[in-house]
Amino acid sequence: MPETVQLAEYLFTRLKQLGVGSVHGVPGDYNLTLLDYVEPAGLHWVGNCNELNAAYATDGYARVNGVGALITTFGVGELSAVNAIAGAYTELAKVVHIVGTPRRNQQETRALIHHTLLDGDYHHFARMYEHVTVAQTDLIDPRTAPEQIDTTILQCLIQSRPVYIQVPVDMVSAQVPADRLASPLKIPDVISSPDADAAFTAILERIKASKRPMLYVDGESRAFGMADDIQKLVKETEWPTWTSVFGKDIVDETLPNACGMWQSNYSSKEELAYIGSADLVLCFGPHFSNTNTYFYTTIPSPEKTIFFKGTSVVIGDRIFRDLPAKAFLSALLSKLDLAALRQQVTAENAFKRPAAQSTALPSSSELTNQENFYRPWTEYLHTGDILLAETGTPSHGTRDITLCPHMRYFSATSWLSIGYMLPATQGAALAQRELYEAGKWHGKKPPRTILMIGDGSFQMTAQELSTIIKERLNVTIVLINNDGYTIERCIHGIDEGYNDVARWRYLDAPNFFGIGQQPNGGEYVSETAKVRTWSEMKTALEAFEKSEKPCLRMIEVMMEREDATKALKALMDAQKLSSAKKICTVSCSNLPTTIAASPLPGQAALEGTIKSLLQHQDYSAGTNEETAQRLRRQQDHHQQAANMPQDLFKWEEGGVLKHHCPICQTPLSHEKCRTICLGSHVEWCHRYHSLFRKNWSSRCQACKNTDEQHEKRHRQIAEVLARIKKHKADEELAAMQLMMSPITPRTPRTPLTSKALNSVSGPTPPTLEATKITKKERKVAKKAAKALERDKVVTTADIELVAKTLHPEPEKSEEMAETELAESEEHLDIKHNLRFHNSTCNSKSARHDYIVKERGGSVLLDDQEIEQLLGAFEVDPTAIGKEGELVKELVEAIKSDLVHFNDELAMTARNRAGFWRWANKRAYRDLMENGKEWSDKHNKEQNSAEAEEERRGSTATLETETEDDAATSRSGSIDTPSLTGSAGTSLTVPSSKPSSVKKPPTLSLKIPPSKPVADADGWTAVGKKVLTPVKGTLKLSGNGGLRHFAQKPKGQFGALSFADVVKDD
Predict the structure, then answer these.
(1) In this structure, are residues 472 and 547 in contact, taking their beta carbons and an 8 Å threshold?
(2) Within 13 Å, how many C-alpha atoms sit on residue 710's CB side?
(3) HSE-up (13 A, CA, CB side) for residue 116
(4) For labelling alongside 867, which of 221, 253, 435, 729 has CA 20 to 30 A away?
(5) Torsion over CA of 484, 488, 489 and 493, rounded to 10 degrees?
């Protein structure tokens, strides 16, 4: 092997070593040179119709082959594929997404080129992919590129999720070291975990004590390599085994103890009885989404379940970590006596499996229907076939099919992107053919890939049929034509036009995409059939069974637009019953149903549905009361659910995790943040707004704004109180002056006659001329008048008195604080939300419990409470006149403050609950270890920050000098970590009082020429790179944005900001 190879050769050689035989994608100008190396590396290039379809196909290929590779171009190409990559992330498919990017010099110079947002930032799209891939890398250095490729792909293998690799155009042919290619990539060997022995002991004890055990197999088992060991366990123990939708194809359903899928209330009575009475459940690869668990009803009880996850085992409240699933399960089976486990379950405790339902097709001319269409396919499937069921009615109907050994089954699990299955069929069929030709596929006959898809889903990605034809894949497409999105009609809008689709001639699609109808030698052909009745369906299935050569088969099955499986029909009937409330009234005490006479569209069909549902219920005299109670409970439950929020508040989705850890640069949204960074590198503010660097949470701007608004409301209340006191003082002074003034006797009134008028009249006094004043004197007089009218300025003591009166805090000793911390309401709320887990607690009832706890109650103040508060302020609530108006203003201000304060508490409670549902128990332990220090976190953080700054010698002195009296200048300290650790820095701040000087004084800061001091990690306290020292005087203005560098001082002068630098002479 040569010492160096080109980068593209290295990348594709690695994919080839992992078993990748084909690469999907779409050519673009930034990946064209990269594509030149695909086929020379021995890989097959599959050009898809668009990037979304290519990513869907890669997902399907990866699920069958183990790993898949996708190549797109920068920007427009990768963003088109991101939906499918997110689906692969959700459902654990190993996809390596390779993106061709612009040249490095274009990125470094921030060139404004096409396929960008024209802002010079070339990392927008990579940051988007951070959320849907487990590892990302940008190959910009030939020396490290091989290691980057290996590390990224290894994360794909370990975590079974997509990864993202960027290859600049000018790096494609760069020479890189080739020595690493001599060792194929493999998952590292297991390192013995300290939890392993304890986990083995706990599991063996639970198994030994069990009398009615069961196995529950979910879909993540295959992704983490447990499938073979699970199959061995099922076969050897003969314990009753159920699967989820995602895990249906992991267990051989032909085994006598394989009971199929656990379908909640749609399972048989015998199954529900045994599952409910089981004392031990071994659950493998849990994937507890709502659609995979029948809306959380098939999640086994945690008290009797052992969960085998990807890297851990959960037993009750105990989590045993660092136990890779495949290695741990193999080791566990070696410790078990499987033959003895088979005898452990007695005959009376054994599960009696109900008789299987018939799989025969009705031989009649009746129309086909959803309820009986899928089960007969059991007789026509072979070992090694792949069955795919698109989101909608096919994904529900195919659950009744019994799979043959070594079949693969794809169904809607969690992502549910309509249109996924047709491109995934192309990828799965291609991987199936490659493995069969290599002798690595099960079955003697050439395997087939069968897709069952609705007409609406087919129209989403129909163009990928051309890729199936181009690749000559052995695919059968069963298209359910029910005139639109029936699955959406079942959910909502049963008669709405937005659930309709255009009517296509589907069987003409093979011709349109370039295939011939008649066989011509060994050419790839298509076979089509349209089915309306059961007899036509039987003919089509027999032809399907006889076909041996690879070809494209299309069977169009015509069904009614409102026909659905049992579970979906229940949703549709619920819609009809909801609409029926307008035309009929159902009374449990007075049956039968009374139906209104107003003619409405479809009323006859609606009446028939209601009558059939009423007949299905037992409304005999003995059960009327029970039925009435049940309906009332349902009505109360729906009303309660309608009044509740739609879902729990998710703290992590509020944009608080969009940054990186300031210490280790880990994205805060990454799982590593919760296990390593939280509590060690970053911390939360006391109102749980966001995460901050350790000891920096006191800088939370949202907390500062809340405190400022709170103080502003208290100041307003204090000012009203001051005006009331001033009004009382004025009245008392006026009364005192009236009492002290001499009283003169009143002379009697005499009638005013004309003589008297003449006696008092006299010459008119001369008119005084108005004194002329200047404009400046008029302004001074106006200011003086305003100053006289201005209220008394409230002091800090007045504001603190208002705060203590409205929001009193009980005094506690240190001993009481330590003992009562564990019993505090906040502590209990944290423990309550800490137990939350999306997989096990996110049911409707559980969510209701959590939502009730985090919902804040409204403030209700009666007159008695208002009078008590006014009495505390020594205010008369019965005052009238001007004082009464001031009292009313005071009451409104108090109410406003209490309402806002309660809203703040409710918001903090909501944030705290969401935070602890997201956080882990390690952060909680840190909280408890710090004890009451955390309960008073907000008050102590400032002190700790100041102490840290004092230790570094960077405390600044704030000196405020006024023009009238320099002796009254105030001095204090401001936390200024941006000042690069310089000691003895002096800031001169202009006075807040009016000054006669026209030009305000500037803020001057002497910057020493010494080099800034950085922390041990190479960062200053600001979190930025070390500042370059500036020689000279740095002048600061009195407004602007030094808020990033210092605490906002509490005064009238505002924040500080840089102005300019004046060089010394």
Answers:
(1) no
(2) 20
(3) 16
(4) 729
(5) -110
DSSP string covering 306-367 = EEE-SS-EEETTEEE-S--HHHHHHHHHHHS-HHHHHHHS-TTTS--PPPPPP-PPP-SSSB
Cβ–Cβ under 8 Å, residues 842 and 289: no
Is the CB of residue 193 less than 8 Å from the CB of residue 323?
yes
* Per-residue confidence (pLDDT) for residue 605, from 0 to 100: 43
Six token digits for residue 515: 């295939």
Q: 227: closest CA among 409, 484, 1, 461?
A: 409
- Domain spanning 4-181, CATH class: alpha beta
Which residue, among 276, 278, 239, has the nearest Cα to 256 in the 3D structure? Answer: 239
C-alpha to C-alpha distance for 563 and 553, rounded to whole angstroms: 24
Strands 584-585 and 526-531: unpaired
Secondary structure element (H or E) that encloses residue 167, with its range: strand 163-168
Second-level CATH architecture of 370-568: 3-Layer(aba) Sandwich (3.40)
Query: In whole angstroms, how far apart are CA 320 and each of 155, 194, 307, 309?
Result: 22, 9, 10, 10
Query: And the tokens for 984?
Result: 């003895």
Most confidently modeled of 323-332, 677-686, 755-764? Answer: 323-332
Which residue from 262, 251, 351 is spatially nearest to 299, judged by alpha carbons?
262
Distance from CA of residue 691 to its chain's centroid? 17
pLDDT per residue over 695-707, tens digit each? 888 888 888 888 8
Asked if 4-181 and 194-344 have one fold, the answer is yes
Q: What pTM was computed for the model?
A: 0.59
- What CA–CA distance (Å, rounded) separates 672 from 674? 6
Structure tokens at 78: 């990768």
Assign a CATH topology to domain 194-344. Rossmann fold (3.40.50)
What pLDDT shows up at residue 858? 53
**Which sequence spans correspond to the domains of the chain?**
4-181, 194-344, 370-568, 661-738+864-935
